[in-house]
């Protein structure tokens, strides 16, 4: 099968840029796809950071410290941009104006004003495909729950909880980084860094909060500055958002949580849905297992625990008996993005990447959450 080659530039050669390169190198893991990404040009303001790509990715022919050189390169069709939040507005807008497709990291701007500027650029360039990175909903267990929501297996929704928890910042001796500073991460703190992962499925299901009451925590207030001193941590470590969802047919509470300091959790994404006809739970802590509780009036209530086979949005060479992991979910996300570039609306994706409109919704929610935390009040949402 001949495959359409999509030439990529990478802006930001840190951890996630390397994860994309790894996913591209594993493209042979996918079956029956007629497109393939090739990373041809890499950029990092700290030029030595590009050396890993030049040594490990044979398709890379150019490396630069100036992203404008990458955007001017006719050998680049699309861009993956993974930079701190304060750089999103300028870089994302320039990428979109250059006519190159964009997969950008969340939260699509350091604050609401930056996001609105990015959204205006997207509206002015409808020919450019723009998506937001969010890998976890591509896990088979999450896909199974999405199928059940579409099939209305839950009946009337009683409540929903979704979260993304890790404990990498539990150690108070960990050196401060850009995510701890408002100037680079923004006032959202953990919400901006982790929140799109949590909101992706609820927003895709149409579960829009009518209001929010936020509980935000700063747990480690000072960290080593890497120079022998200590520095103030300015951003929120953990966030719990208690929301009320109101649809045309029902209303129910929904709790969304993002935690950088959650003891016992290395990198846990989860969703729980309770309903009058059925309830379900899925967590990446047990990636092969999804739980479902069917309910009939008067009948016994019993959870059914099922091992979810390795069944993904895009077929792979892996047999169903094996375990799906993060490297698989990021590969699936990239396949969905490349599929849209290759085929537009005729793509075969059963589940698509997070949309910029969903990232914009998260900004409105997180802005309201900051207002709620400051006032101690429940804040109403205005989605118009």
Automatic annotation (TrEMBL):
UniProt key word Amino-acid biosynthesis: no
GO terms of molecular function: nucleotide binding; oxidoreductase activity
GFO/IDH/MocA-like oxidoreductase domain mapped to chain residues: 143-281
Pfam families linked to this entry: GFO_IDH_MocA, GFO_IDH_MocA_C3
Domain Gfo/Idh/MocA-like oxidoreductase N-terminal: 6-126
Keywords: Oxidoreductase
Superkingdom to which the source organism belongs: Bacteria
Protein known as: Putative dehydrogenase
Record lineage: Bacteria, Bacillati, Bacillota, Bacilli, Bacillales
């Amino acid at each position: 099968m001949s495959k359409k080659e999509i030439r990529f530039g990478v802006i930001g050669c840190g951890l996630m840029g390397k994860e994309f390169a790894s996913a591209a190198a594993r493209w042979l893991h996918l079956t029956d796809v007629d497109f393939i990404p090739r990373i041809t040009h890499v950029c990092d303001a700290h030029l030595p950071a590009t050396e890993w790509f030049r040594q490990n990715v044979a398709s890379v022919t150019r490396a630069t410290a100036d992203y404008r050189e990458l955007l001017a390169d006719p050998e680049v069709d699309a861009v993956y941009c993974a930079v701190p939040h304060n750089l999103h507005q300028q870089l994302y807008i320039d990428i979109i104006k250059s006519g190159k497709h964009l997969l950008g990291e969340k939260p699509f701007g350091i604050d609401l004003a930056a996001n609105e500027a990015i959204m205006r650029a997207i509206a002015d360039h409808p020919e450019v495909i723009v998506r937001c990175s969010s890998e976890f909903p591509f896990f088979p267990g999450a896909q199974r729950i999405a199928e059940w929501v579409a099939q209305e297996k839950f009946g009337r929704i009683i409540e929903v909880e979704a979260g993304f928890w890790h404990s990498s910042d539990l150690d108070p001796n960990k050196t401060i980084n850009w995510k701890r500073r408002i100037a680079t991460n923004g006032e959202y703190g953990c919400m901006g860094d982790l929140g799109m992962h949590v909101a992706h499925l609820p927003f895709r299901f149409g579960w829009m909060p009518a209001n929010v009451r936020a509980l935000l925590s700063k747990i480690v207030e000072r960290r080593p500055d890497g120079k022998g001193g200590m520095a103030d941590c300015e951003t929120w470590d953990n966030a719990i958002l208690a929301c009320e969802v109101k649809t045309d047919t029902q209303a129910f509470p929904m709790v969304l949580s993002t935690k950088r300091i959650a003891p016992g959790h290395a990198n846990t994404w989860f969703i729980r849905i309770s309903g009058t006809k059925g309830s379900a739970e899925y967590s990446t802590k047990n990636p092969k297992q999804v739980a479902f509780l069917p309910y009939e009036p008067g009948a016994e209530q019993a959870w059914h625990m099922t091992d979810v086979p390795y069944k993904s949005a895009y077929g792979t060479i892996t047999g169903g008996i094996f375990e799906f992991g993060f490297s698989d979910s990021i590969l699936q996300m990239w396949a969905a993005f490349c599929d849209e570039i290759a085929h537009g609306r005729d793509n075969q994706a059963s589940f698509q990447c997070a949309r910029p409109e969903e990232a914009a919704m998260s900004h409105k929610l997180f802005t309201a959450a900051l207002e709620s935390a400051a006032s101690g009040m429940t804040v109403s949402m205005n989605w118009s």
